[in-house]
């Protein structure tokens, strides 16, 4: 027998969550297909459809500029800050990609107070990923280990700290999700 509407009243949250997930997925596919670049005002609408959407355009620009896959940038943001542009770690890392102020200023000339600006933070964090990708010849495990623990710790220890191993697993899992959103694109590993 078909389930009546009365039986569905206890499950009101499921359709709501499904709608939020579907609209976020649809919005992400629109951004990844390039529609947002051709029609910039659409990003205002997209920004209200899901947690990752407001930063897709910034991630796209940084990906092109620094030759780092967009899904990897989004995965790092997800695992570093949970898409909180005002996040500050216990060690002082700031913003979406949790960039250390000393790295931003010393390596890239970015004033630490600018790290809370999403576009600046994503560009700086992605530039750092590119620097590490060049250093570790695109080996994603080492790049992510160095991004999280620092290159000195990565190079000097035979085994990565538990926190860094968990971080790498988090990024790999999120990366898989974001790759699925870009199905059909020519994105791949770090080059």
Name some characteristics of this structure.
191 residues; disordered N terminus; 0% strand; mainly alpha; globular
Write structural notes for this entry.
The chain has 191 residues and is mainly α. 62% of the residues lie in helices and 0% in strands. It is built from 11 helices and no strands. Helix 9 crosses helix 11. The N terminus is likely disordered.
Give the topology, please.
Layout: H1 5-8, H2 13-32, H3 35-38, H4 42-47, H5 56-66, H6 70-81, H7 101-108, H8 118-135, H9 140-149, H10 151-156, H11 162-181
Helix pairs in contact: 5-8, 6-11, 8-9, 9-11
C-alpha geometry: globular
Q: How many β-strand runs?
A: 0
Uncertain stretches of 5 or more adjacent residues: 1-9, 47-52
Please state the structural category: mainly alpha
What pattern of helices and strands is seen along the backbone? HHHHHHHHHHH
Indicate the radius of gyration in whole angstroms: 19 Å
Largest sheet: none
Percent of residues in helical segments? 55-70%
Q: Could you tell me the mean pLDDT?
A: 81
Q: How much beta, percentage-wise? A: under 5%
Q: Note the quaternary state here.
A: single chain
Number of helical segments with 4 or more residues:
11
Question: What distance separates the N and C termini?
Answer: 55 Å
């Amino acid at each position: 027998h078909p389930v009546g509407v009365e039986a569905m009243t206890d499950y009101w949250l499921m359709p709501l969550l499904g709608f939020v997930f579907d609209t976020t997925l649809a919005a992400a596919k629109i951004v990844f297909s390039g529609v947002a670049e051709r029609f910039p005002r659409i990003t205002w609408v997209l920004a209200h459809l899901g947690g990752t959407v407001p930063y897709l355009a910034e991630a796209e620009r940084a990906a092109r500029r620094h030759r780092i896959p967009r899904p990897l940038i989004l995965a790092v943001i997800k695992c570093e800050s949970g898409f909180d542009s005002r996040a500050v770690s216990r060690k002082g890392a700031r913003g979406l990609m949790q960039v250390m102020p000393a790295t931003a200023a010393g390596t890239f000339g970015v004033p630490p107070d600018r790290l809370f600006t999403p576009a600046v933070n994503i560009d700086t964090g992605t530039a750092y990923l590119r620097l590490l990708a060049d250093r570790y010849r695109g080996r994603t495990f080492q790049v992510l280990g160095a991004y999280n623990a620092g290159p000195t710790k990565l190079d000097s220890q035979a085994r990565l700290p538990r926190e860094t191993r968990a971080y790498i697993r988090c990024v790999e899992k999120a990366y898989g999700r974001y790759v699925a959103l870009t199905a059909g694109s020519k994105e791949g590993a770090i080059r």
